[in-house]
Fold each of these.
Amino acid sequence: MKTRAESPAVVYTLLALGLSYFAVFMLLPLVVIFVSAFKNGVGPYVAALLNPDARSAIWLTLLVSAVAVPLNLVFGVAASWAITKFDFWGKNLLITLIDLPVSVSPVISGMVFVLLFGAQGLIGPWLAEHHLKLIFAVPGIILATMFVTFPYVAREVIPVMKAQGSDEEEAALTLGASGWQTFWRITLPKIKWGLLYGVILCNARAMGEFGAVSVVSGHIRGRTNTLPLHVEILYNEYDFVGAFAAASVLAFLALVTLVIKTVIESRSPELQSNRLKKH
Amino acid sequence: MNKNRLFPGFGLSLGYTCAYLGLIVLIPLGTLIWKSSSLSWREYLDVVTSVRTLAAFRLSFLTAFVSALVNTVFGFLIAWILARYAFPGKRIVDALIDLPFALPTAVAGIALTAIYASTGWIGQHLHKFGIEVAFTPLGIVLALNFIGLPFVVRSVEPVLQELESEVEEAAASLGAGRWEIFRRIIFPAVIPSLIAGFTLAFARGIGEYGSVVFISGNMPMQTEIAPLLIMTKLEQFDYAGATAIALTMLIVSFSLFFMINVLQARSSRRLGMEA
Amino acid sequence: MKKFILIAVVLAAAVGFFYGEGAVKKPELLNVSYDPTRELYQDYNEAFKKHWKETTGEEIRILQSHGGSGKQARSVIDGLEADVVSLALAYDIDAIAEKSGLLPATWQERLPHQSAPFSSTIVFLVRKGNPSNIHDWDDLARPGIRVITPNPKTSGGARWNYLAAWAYALKKWNNDEVRAKEFVKAVYQNAPVLDTGARGSTVTFVERRIGDVLISWENEAYLVAATIGKDQCEIITPSLSILAEPPVAVIDKNADRHGTRAAAEEYLKYLYSPEGQKIAARHYYRPSSREIADKHAGQFSRVELITVRDVFGGWKTAQKTHFAEGGTFDQISRTQL
């Protein structure tokens, strides 16, 4: 048990302060979204979501995360293995580079892909010659999303793997298990919750990315508009109910994601104890 | 180290990590250097030290700094109550902390403007007292508060939970007051994670675009943030200028991140954990 | 792990397959346009599809992309494969011609009226009953008036606004550039916010109810007054304004590559037909056809219109003098601190 030595007055003051900050900055924007979405009742809300452009935007958003998240998952596991099981020169630099996309301005993240694959870009002319279309098409959107969500799995798995230690793996390897066997039978089960949490965060971020995707999408309706871009379009068409309806879908997806995350955490005491040891 | 020899897959995992990192992150970011190399050193300096760019940098760094500071205080507070107190709805609060990760930044921007514009839910009351939020630097700070909070909370929360209560109990039994325990034992232990959270929130704040443009006002020299300036330059087909500013911001983020990673590696070594 | 990689590769390949070349049955046209034309082209595309079916027997699909004019031009330069563009100002299409070579520099001569099938102008939108008593450009420079206009650096529409104010000042003070700059500066000092696009400004003015006057495209002002701003806004036409001619062009190389040149050319020509002109008028654009314009004459206020060519020597010069790095807009913002 923790010591609970603060006087009730202090506890309540702290609770009140912290919770009101939370309410103003986290809860209120969420409330605004849902209130505005249902301003004209349920009918217009449903209609906004059944619109063909909205449906294709939802479909594209799901497709993009279905590709970007598994690729980042594989990367996250490989990077964690390399970073936690081995010592090598430049490890801090590697970790920094992996973290970097979190802090790169979304505008820049989108722009670099245009500079690379755009018609005036570094390899754009070559791509055009071979009739490969990356930018202003779905592959470009996926690439930009992969860039933005790049670190999330690795960031979650590295601390978990580090905290788990390597004793069991060492034992297995000494007893003659192969590397893959050790990984599948011992490491993976140990890190699965951390992995899942990473995937969930990565997925949430992939579905919600706006800035970078906006730069590379080309905004072709029914083709290259993701759900966050669809929100902007509707907003610019003065269709505020529609915009907030689409936004509420994203907020809802985010909420579902976060609820799943909480459930996973409460179901798995190991993950909770892992989270404790993260740093 | 024999550890390196015992574990298999060093080449595969590190090779794959580096290849993927190179392909998705480094090559694209490298184009920034390639593109801005069309500028001479002097031209580069001219772009990044022009009055308007400096004003934008000042604004972006200042608002990100203030907001990261505010978030450090309140993020710590929220992490504290989440880690230590039981209250109804705690689960919900804990889950919602991650919301800004998931919510599209443009949606956040629209919602925040609806709240803080001088006709908005909160804005109209503040307006009566002569406080303007939307289209002022204050609005930018508020938007960044939303974006940055989870970084601080998620950095500090695990450390607070991990703190050995025995040490605190021992201190208490030795007659240390609650405040003294906090100051002498708890606070020093969370400082590295507070700094990490602050830096993450700060770095993210400098580059934030989607949520800020709606509420910032975008007046050149006054409320124009650096990412908007990049957009503006792109719109004018000035790729070299845009990449010059982008590169500068990238270098700042990189240095900040490198600093906290070294700091964290050191502090965890000091705490006797595996580095 | 192997399984993961395999699945990922298969998925990526599948996506590449479906979207790389795209097995398209119907011929497609991509019209890359600016913000306020969304409603116009929604209607027009339906009409054109019917017209195309009647004349050629072919089905055609028309894709739309909307955004800020400059941003859209840049996307086309960077490889967005537009068959036709319809942008806010000739400068943006000039930029495409110059930087990408996808169409000849003489594109503007290929269609009547400098390739502008319809025109518009810049007017004011004020609150119902005109409480701030705004009638002409002078009122916008009055202290205490809050003017809503987008950022001329990022919005094509905003540049028309800026030049209209400038032209008014030039006329008032007999071409005194210094006075004109002072005047425009006074107007922009009254702006609490510069949204990145014309639509953003309208939302700020109508939905957030911020500001006393919105400088806007005429067609946008009418659209707003008829829809979201109904009963809360009215239109004020200043004594002098600018003839805004949003041009259209076929992007030759893209259309040729897609084999859609015939359809693309017809798509733009049909804008000049009575049917196309009627649709434009219905969306509050001023038709270039005299006949249709006369029919809708009652719909628009009479206003003295100057052109960019006459007053500013064309868009290239205007862009350089006013909006480029270090231009007059930068100068007036710099001294605002």
Amino acid sequence: MKDEAVTREDRVASLKGMGCSRKRVEDARFTQGKGNYVDDIKLDGMLFGDFVRSPYAHAKITNIDTSAAMEVPGVLAVLTAADLAPLGLHWMPTLAGDKQMVLADGKVLFQGQEVAFVVAEDRYAAADGIEAVEVEYEELPVIVDPFEALQSDVILRPDTVGEDGSPSDGAHGPRKHHNHIFTWECGDKDPTEQVIANAEVVAEESMYYHRTHPCPLETCGCVASMDKVNGKLTLWGTFQAPHAIRTVVSLISGIEEHNIRVISPDIGGGFGNKVGAYPGYVCSVVASIVTGKPVKWIEDRMDNLMTTAFARDYWMKGRISATKDGKITGLHCHVTADHGGFDACADPTKFPAGFMNICTGSYDIPTAFLEVDGVYTNKAPGGVSYRCSFRVTEAVYFIERMIEVLAIELDMDASELRKINFIKKEQFPYKAALGWEYDSGDYHTAWDKAMNAVDYDGLRAEQKQRIEDFKAGKTRKLLGIGLTHFTEIVGAGPVKNCDILGLGMFDSCEIRIHPTGSAIARLGTISQGQGHATTFAQILASEIGLPADSITIEEGDTDTAPYGLGTYGSRSTPVAGAATAMAGRKIRAKAQMIAAYLLEVHDDDVEFDVDRFVVKGAPEKFKTMKEIAFAAYNQAIPGIEPGLEAVSYYDPPNMTYPFGAYVCVMEIDVDTGVTDIRQFYALDDCGTRINPMIIEGQIHGGLTEALAVALGQEIAYDDMGNVKTGTLMDFFLPTAWEVPNYETDHTVTPSPHHPIGAKGVGESPHVGGVPCFSNAVHDAFRAFGLRQTNMPHDHWRIWRTANELGLHD
Amino acid sequence: MIPASFEYHRPTDMAGVLSILVEHGDDARVMAGGHSLIPMMKLRMADVPHLIDLQDVGGLAGITVGDTITIGAMVTQSDIILHDALADAAPILREASLQIADPQVRYMGTVGGNVANGDPGNDMPGLMQCLDATFTVVGPNGERKIPAREFYEAAYMTGREDDEVMTAVSFAKPVGGHAYEKQKRKIGDYATAAAAVQIVKDGGTCASASIAMTNLSDTPVYSAAAGDALVGTSVDGDAIKAAVSAMLNDIDPVEDNRGPVAFKRHVAGVILARAIERAWSRA
Amino acid sequence: MTQKNQYKLNVNGQTVEVTAEPRELLIYTLREQLNITGPHIGCETSHCGACTVTIDGKSVKSCTMFVAQAEGKEITTIEGLGSPDALHPLQEAFKEHHGLQCGYCTPGMITRASKLLEEIPNPTEEEIRFGMAGNICRCTGYQNIVKSIKAAAAEINAAKEAAQ
């Protein structure tokens, strides 16, 4: 035969399929400056829109005078709520079942809120026009504290009050107060209270997971182009979920969905910032319809930090009970969730607090109860999942802090306490007290590997010596050993319980094999740096036996790609990756019939082998997939349609549950609050590994974002609702100088229900990293009596901790 | 972030600069590297109808090293870092410059812009106080010299008149040990606290000491008392404590995102102590 | 709006003339007038470095320079560093060592790194981290960027040695 000299291993290698560190196909264009991001789009006659924004956090708008702005050369239109109201577009639905003002409708609820939209011939005229719009405000009392909001007579949202003056029902049930959004309960309330009341040991702690922001390097933006001749609207934008955006635009504009084409070009990082729908999209569409010209809107960095998609802002109160030997018996968690002026988080509809109910973590906790109260304040709307599945960072932070606090209460080593309580390998699939069924895991193996890798006992001995030296005045630096074992819940998700605006959270893949044996596959997801064009081709290469280099992956164009819910919550691999494998298997099934015909044997007498079908027991008789592809287009095969294409819509039977064991060793200067990461070890188990190089890159990146959040990154407000961290001077994005090298490691526990056993990885390092950095800070001060101090652990807050513990005396 | 419109001027000599300043008064501002002014203009916090770019004005970019060191206003931080003779003669300049902003900003940021702007976050003003530098400004009435220690009045308020242009800084070649110690949140940040120290050692005792602090008041703080506290001592723990406590009487930090006043005062003390120790070890 | 003026620049070896208001920022001139869209806008306050270009031998954040200031200058962007048939060693190394993810910071990052390797031909890891601290990346955590720059330095130095 023609390739006798080629071994089976060679054939496997030449596919560049799953498990190899294939170099990224995206990089040729990015390294040469030839990416195509939304702000690179330039259309004939394109106009620029930008917002007049409120300087106040809470104010009544008494008048908007646009006449001077209209005199500015180059300004073509100034839209206000009054212009949008007749179209019913002055408010829009949020993905959380709430609604949000597109342009201020009589009042503003947060600083930076969109008040008017100036459309001009270029950016410069738009900026000058914004300066010329005169808005009269009447300041109202500002509430930035959610606990105060729940006590206050001040009504933030008039639409939350019924005609009789009592709070009206919200999207998730009755309101407790006019500034209250929802209550979400999960688990067994009374049994949990009983277990805790009767427990030998109870640890109680409150913690605040501060407000922060995903802050991708590229801000949000779009270009809307209404073709009035054909009645077609094209919308390019930074959309992590282009299909959902198309549906939302159709629902709110009334334009039929087939007349809307949404395109996500290259996206300069998303991290959750680009999931939601923003007023800029709506205003650009309206402006394009009004002017008949394409309209571009691009946020500047201050707009981005102040208005689109904050994350976290969870006030969490926990009680955890255990036997005196350290076996956990119960967990109670209450959250006060500050959503700002509108509830604009992007959680699945039935989960107003996302998957916060994964907060029992990696531990076998028999009884638990969770209650979340959502609250309005005069802060920006959002509550997005910043590099995590829905609210999973908050959940993992909560449980990993509670474990540490319980260890203090028990006077026990925190690693030992974890080992006592890990869900055991043989308990999987494991039904957790708050409802989830964990698919697979081997926590003890991962943990032991991590402890050995860092020489945990050696570190503790060093720490003990350090404490003695500190007390003896020989050093002013403390050593913190941060531990975390996280369990993520990703891959939303099964349509039976996961939808957004009623859209089931399946995903999709459509494959076309070309006659010469190359292919294109299109998916409902969209890469924002994860390297989908590289890794999805690897899945397919292994599934259909054509080289990854011969497979184009295309995403983000709703006119060509099959419907899908997009990329966030580490859902691409668990859901679209599964769809890809399943579509590949459909291709293979048809290829099998073609091969059998060509080889003149029964279908059951051929079997797939790497890149070909061979006759069982006669490996010298085979047809390669390349040959089969050609035959599909050139032979008239009885009973088989020509062509070789397949589509799969995959509704996952369950979520996937990646996990990991992290250790951070941190030096802390108690006099200045300066921290130094001496070592960071990250073991991740994301199931089957598609591309180790890309996995490692995702982990480095996620850990760095975790470092930022734990050690300094926040969206801070003053009492007047002014954003104090609106530029990159104050909003902490670490540079290469502040970031350590990371050690990565892995175990492999495949997902039993996923076609290729993969679980997703992009968000794990962020979810696990934040508590690990934070626990290192806490651990350094444990010997001096610290139980809990809130993030971000920036210099002054660490200094304050040291000061309060008397370490400066 | 788009600045308001302005007229752009790029004169080729100082006479040209001054005539524009005289003609437009408050409406005109000179710009060197632009890395303080342009962000302010983009945020529309600075309104500059007439912008005078100094890049083509000759004679402002020189460095002369002798008993007196003179640095032209258009010399960049990068120029300072790369100038070996300057680093030999006044090593504190390179040490401080490396702690300013980031590589790109150091390529554009100038000594003149850094000292003339009066931004309390800038590092050069404190450094110049430590070195007892003299600033040369030129205006319609000719040239005048202003001691750095008398130049700063309040944030963005200096002894330079609106129609004057900073042309150079000069100072006697420093003697003794030096240190520029700075705590910041990250590269690109202003100081939480920074200390510039020059110490002269004679035998085992301190013959003279000059100490200045950055971003701990609305102006840079030259603390004569802190320096005096070291003179005549062996710069031991007690002397350093005395210097720190004298310095703390001279600073007046305000709370910002870097932290509350108590923290800043504490860190100022720690940073100064470290700077003194390092300078003394080099003296 | 003030009057527009003519400005002559040399960009990637070509002399070009643009008509612009003096307040136009160089990054917009490059991106919107000259269709040189490699340099990006990330922060607009000169912190992130996505807009980095080389101007007369200096690494400069082009969001913090008016086009009027750039008149008469020689400007090199990522587009001027290599060609599809002859990539710059840094472009090769970033591909080889996974030095990028979303790609948004990459043009500024590589452009800055090209200058860094002229400043320090054989940098240590510490020198790379310090010399690249004017460029923010949100995706990679920098570890593979450092690796890429080290590899490119070795490649460039080896080529130089071979040429001697």
